[in-house]
User: Fold these one by one.
Assistant:
Number 1:
Amino acid sequence: MTALPTAGRKTRGGLPLLLSELRWEQVMFWRNPAAAIFTAAFPVMFLVIFGSLNRNSRIGFYGGIGADQYYVPAIISFSMMGACYTALAMQLVNRRETGILKRMRATPMPAWAVIAAQILNALVVGALVGLLVGVIGVVFYGLRVYPSRLPVFVLVLVLGGLSMAALGVLVGSLVPNLDAAPGIVNFIFFPLVFLSGTFYPIKASTPVAQVMQWLPLRPFTLSIFRVFDPRGGPVVNLRDLAVLTAWGIAAALLAGRRFRWEPRR
Amino acid sequence: MNAVEVEGLTKSYGLLEAVRGVSFAVRQGEIFALLGPNGAGKTTTLSVLEGYTAADAGRILVLGTDPAAGSRSLRQRVGIVLQDIAVQPYLTVREALTRTAAYYPDPRPADEVIALVGLQPQAATRVRRLSGGQQRRLDLALAVIGRPELLFLDEPTTGFDPSARREAWALVRDLRELGVTILLTTHYMEEAQALADRIAVLAAGLLVADGTPETIGGRDTAESVVTFTVPEAIDLSVVPLPTGASDHTDGHFTVRTTEPVRYLHALTGWSIDAGIAVEGLTVARPSLEDVYLELTREAP
C-alpha cells in the first residue's frame, strides 16, 4: 500500500492558495474578450455618453453641483455592479453548465476557496474598472477628489462589491441554463440601474427613490457619490450602508442554499 | 485492501431505479471495467464512488473511506475524468496543468504529464484551440497530475476514432504500469476486453456478471460449437455425437459440447479409422460479444 500523500509535502492552504487562484482568475478573465469588453468597456462607454450629454449642466436638487461630479462616481458604482454582479453571475452559470465547477469539486481545492477566488477576482476587476473610470473622470470631466475620504471610499467599494457579488452568486445559482443567463441577469439588473439613479440623478423625495432606497443599487450609488460630494455633507450614510449589507447577507445565505456544482441538465 | 468496495449499492431518481443493489470490488493496481449498455447504471455507480451522488443504500468504500463525506484527503488521492470535457478555455495546456498541480501535495511535474498524454506540441496552446481529442487527453492529464492512487474514467473513449482509441488504451495501460488503480466505464466490449483485468457487466441497474475477460459469463465453461460436414452418401447414424444438443441437415453437423477437446478427439479418431472425410471443421467458443449480448438481453 502506498504511503499517504499527506505524509509528504503539504498542499498550500488558505491565503497563498487563494492568491495563486486569484492570479489565474485574472489571467482567464482578461483573456476572455466577451467578459473583458463587457465589463470594462461598458462603464467607460456610459461615462462618455452621459458625460457628453450633460456637459456643463448642473443638478438643482444636489445644490447645483456640476453633473459630472455626480456621473463619474455613479459610473464607478456601475463598474463594480458590472464586475461583481453581472460578470460573476454569468461566469458562474457558464462554469456550472460546462461542467467546470463539477470538475473543480473533484480536486482537493476547498469549496470555499473555489468561490472566494471568483468573488475576489470580481472585486479586483470592479476596482480596476472603477479606477479607470475615475482617472478618465479626473482627466476629462474635471472630477474633484477628496484624498482624506479615501478610507471611506475603499470601505464602500468593498462592501458594495461584496454585496453585489452575493447577489451575483444568488442569481447565477437560480438561472436554469446558459441560454437563459444573459436575459435573466440583465432583466433584473438594468431596470434597477435606471430606477436607482445610476444613469441619471433621481431626487430623493420622488416615489421611485422612496422605493429604491430599500433596494441595494441606489444605496450603493449614493454611498459612492457622497465620497465625491463637494457640498461637504456627511460622507457616510449608515442607513444606506445597512441596507446594502443586509441585501448582501440575505443574498449570501440564500445563495448558499441554492448553489449547485453540477449542470442543471 | 481493495481500492474500491461496493456492497448493495442502490440509487433511484424518482421512480427510476438507476442502480439496484450492486456489489463489486476493485483490487489495488488493476484495471476494472464496468461494462454495460447506455442507461445500465454505470455513470450513476461511478458518480456515487466519486462522491457527487449520495447512494440510497449500500456500503461504499473508496480507498477505505466513504466518498459521500467529500474529504479533502480523499480528493487528493483520486483522479476523475468525467464524461464531458470540462477545461478552462482561456489557459494554455501547461498553464492549466500548473494551476491544477498547486491543489495537490505531491504533484507530477507539468511537463512529465504533458509528455505522458502526448501534448508536447500543444503545451503553449490555449485550451479552446485544441481539438476534441486533445482536450480529452488534457482532461486525463489534469486527472493524473495530482499523482492519484485511483483513477475513475467515465467512458474515456466514446466518440474516438479507432486509432485514437488505441492510443488512449496504451495510455491507460501506461498509467497502470505507474501503479494507478483504474476503474472505467464503457459500452464497448472490445475496450473492456483489451484493457480490463476484470469486468463487471451492468444491465438495467443490476450486476449480471463479473470476472476476467476470459471467464466472464461462464465464457470458459460455456458450450463450444463444433461444425463440420460429412459426405451425404454415408449412414449418418454412425457419426459420433456427444450426449446433448446436436443437429444436422444434409450432412452439415452443428454440435454443442462442454468438452470440445474430448469430442474432437472422438470425431477425428473416427474419421481416420473409418476413412470418412470430415470437412470444414470449425470450433468456436462464445465471444465476449455473445456473452455480453446474452447477459444484457435477459436483464429484467
Note: Chain A has ten helices and two strands.
Number 2:
Amino acid sequence: MITEAVEERENYLNASYGIKSWLLTKDHKRIALLYLHTITFFFFLGGIFATLIRLELLTPKGDLVSADTYAKLFTLHGVIMIFFFLIPSIPATLGNFFLPMMIGAKDLAFPRINLLSWYLLVIGGCFAMYAMLAGGVDTGWTFYVPYSTNYSNTYVVATGLGIFIAGFSSILTGLNFIVTVHRMRAPGMTWFRLPLFVWANYATALIQVLGTPVIAITLVLLIGERTLHIGIFDPARGGDPVLFQHLFWFYSHPAVYIMVLPAMGVISELVSVFSKKPIFGYRVVAFSSVAIAVLGFLVWGHHLFVSGQSVYAGLVFSFLSYFVAIPSAIKVFNWTATLHKGSISFATPMLYAFGFIGLFTVGGLTGLFVACLGVDVHVHDTYFVIAHFHYIMVGGTLMAYLGGLHYWWPKMSGRMYPEGWAKLSALVIYLGFNLTFFPQFILGYLGMPRRYWTYPDEFQVLHVMSTAGASVLAVGYLMPLIYFMWSLRYGAIAGPNPWGATGLEWQTASPPPAHNFEETPVVTTEAYDYAALAAMEEAKVG
Amino acid sequence: MAASVDHLLYFLLAVAVFFSVGIFLTIFYFAIRYRRRSESELPAPVHGAMSLEILWSVIPFGLTMIMFAWGASVFFTISRPPDDAQQIYVIGKQWMWKIQHMEGQREINELHIPVGQAVKLTMTSEDVIHDFFVPAFRTKADVLPGRYTTTWFKPTKPGKYHLFCAQYCGTNHYAMVGWVYVMEPQDYQAWLSGGTTGSLASSGEKLFQDLACANCHHLSDPPGRGPNLRNLYGSQVELTGGGHVKADEEYIRESILNPSAKIVAGYQPIMPTFQGLVTEENVLQLIEYIKSLTPKPVPPPPGALPSRDRKGAEAVGSRQKSTKQ
C-alpha cells in the first residue's frame, strides 16, 4: 500500500512552510486548522470562566470572587462560548475542511473570502479580549436593555463590536458554503447523493446568511442607544425594551440551530460509518435539517413568555415551538433505526455519537417543558433552562464536535489518536457532563434563579454535585488536547480510509494533497453505499 | 394553581422519561445485539420506510399538541387574575422590591398576604427589567420600566416563601430577594392594622391637591380646562382625532407622565408632563385616587368565598381613614 510513504508524499501540510504560508493561505484545509486553533483557544478560555463560576457556587456564600466579578464571569463565559466557540465550531473547522472534500471539490467557492472570514473572527475576538482585559462586561450574554444601555458601566460597546465583527465571519462562511454546494459538486454528485453532513451545513448556512444580519442590526441599535441615546429601546424616550428581546432572539434562537444542525450532520456520518449502513430515511433526515432551519425562524417568542408579551403571542410561539421539535425527534428515531441489524463498532467517534444521542434527547425533551406555556412560567430564567440548553449545546454540539474531530483526525493529521485514552475521555466527559448538569434541572424546578452569586443554603447539595461534575468534565476536556498533540508525532499512520467510510474525503490520501484529489472524482453511487465501497476495494486488491 | 402547573409538569416528565429511557434501551440493545463481529461483515442496507417515518412523526406531534393545549390552558389561568383579587402594587428597583398595599402599608422585600385570598400584583420598575418570581406559587412575571405588568396567585398554605428576582438586573441581582408571608386571615388583619399613613387612595387625594391637579380637573361643575375625572376609570374615552381608549391603570399612568400622547376629545393639549416630578409610588397613589372616584362595580355574586375577605379589608381601610380624621 502507499501509506508508508506518508512523510515524503506532498500534502497540504508540507506543501509550503513558514508563518506566511499559513496566514495568507487560501487552502480551505489550512484555514480550517487556523479556525481549529482559534476556537480551541476560546473554548479553554470560556472553560476557565466556567470553572471559576462552578467554584464560586460550591458554597452558598460569595467567597471566591466578588459579585461584580461573578457577573463578568458568566457574561464572558456565555459570550466567548457562544459567539467565538459554538457558532464557528463545526462549520468553520470540520465543515471548512470536509465540505469541499465530501462533494469532490478542490476548495470552497471563494477561498479568499474564506480566509477573510477567519480574520474577521480573530478581529472580533480581539475586541472581546480587549473588553475582557480592560475590565470586562457584566450584562449577561443576552445584553438585555435598559441594563446594557443605560445602567451597566462596563465594556458593552467593545464586546458588542466584537460580536458584530465575528457575525460577518459567520455570514461569509455561510455564503461560501451555499455557493460551494450549489456550484462545485463533482460530476455525478447529485443533491440526494450528498452526505448528510453537507445537507446539515447547507441548512446551517441558510440560517447564518439570513439570521446573522439581524443580530448585527440589533447590536448597532444597542450601541447607538448606549452612546447616542437614540431612544429605540429606552421607555423614557418612548422606546420599548421588549423590542430588543424580540430582535435579539430573532437571531439568537436560530443561532441554536447554527450550533446544533452541523452537529446532527456529524452524527449522521458517524452512525452510518460505525454501523456500516446507510442512514435510515436519508431524505427525511436531509429535509428535516432544512425544516429545522426554516421553522427555527418562527419560534423566537418562546423566550418571551414572561416578558409582558401578549398572551396570544405566547400561544402562537408555543404552538410553533412544538413544530420544530418534530424534525429533531425524527432524526433521533432514524439514527436509532439505522443501528438495527448494523455492524456496530465501538470506536471512539461512535461513543461520542451515542453520547450525543442520549444527551441531545434529554436536551430536546426538556425543550418540550420550556415550550409549554404553563410550565415555562415556573422554570423560565431558572437553572432548569441552564441545564436544558447545556444539554443541547454542550451535550449535543460539543459531543458531536469531539466525535467529528476524532473521526476526521486521521484524515486531517494522517495519524491515529490513541484509542484507549480516547475511549476513556469520552466516558469521562459523558459522566462528568451528566453530573454537572442533571442536578441543575432539579435546582431549577426548586426555584434556583439564574445568574445568582449567592443562593439559599437548601440548594447547596445540588450545587456541590454540579461543581464536582464540572471538575470531572474539565479533566475529560483536557485529555483530548494532550493526546491529539501527542498523536501528531507518535500516533500510528492512519492510511487513507481507516474506518471503511464511503465519503469522498476518504478516497484520497491522509493528510490530503493540497488540491484534495489527484483527479476529480466521479460519483456513481448513493451516499453510504458500503457494498459499492467493498466491491471497489476488492477490485483494487484484485 | 401551583398544583395544576405540577400536574402538567408530571405529564411532561412522564413523556420525557418514556422516550429517553425507550431510546436509551433500544440503542443499548442494538449496540450489543448487532456489535461488529468481524471487520469484513457487510450488513444489508435498509433505506427507510415511509410508514415508520409517519408513525414516529404523528405520535410525537399528537403528544406535543396535548402539551401545547394543556400548557396554554394553564397559562390562561396564570395570566388572568380573578375579578375578586385583592390589588397590591409592586415597584422593582436596583436592588429591592417595594410593595405598596391599598390600605397604605408599605414594605420592602417582604410581602404579607392572607391565605385563601387571590392577590393581583400590578408591577412596574424604576430602572431596569426585573422579574417577580415566587417558586412556591409557580408564577413569575417580568417587571418592566415604563409600563405595568400583572401577576396573581392564591396562596393555600400559611408560611414563608422565597421571593426572587429572576431577570438579571445588575451586580446585586442575587440580593434582590425577599420573603412572601402567607398569613391566617386574622393575623393578616392584625398586621394590616399596624402603623400606616392612610390608604393609597387617600395619599393620592392629598397629592392631587398638592400638585394642584384640581385647578384644571374640576371634580364637579363647572367643567375645568381638563376632563372631569369622576367615573373615568374603566370607561371608554373618546380621543381627539377619533378613536377610543379604555381608561385603565396604563392609560392613567401615561396621561400623567406623557399627557400629550392621547388627548381627550374636546380638550386642548395644555397639560404639562409630570415626568420627574412624581415617583412611581406617587403615580400609583394618583391612580388609586382616580379609581376611587369611580363607584365600585357590582360585587361578585353572593356566596363567592373571597368576597368576605375583601369586605373585611375595605372595612379596615375605612376605619383607618376615619381615625385619621
Note: Helices of chain B lie at 2-33, 50-79, 185-192, 200-210, 249-257, 280-292, 306-324.
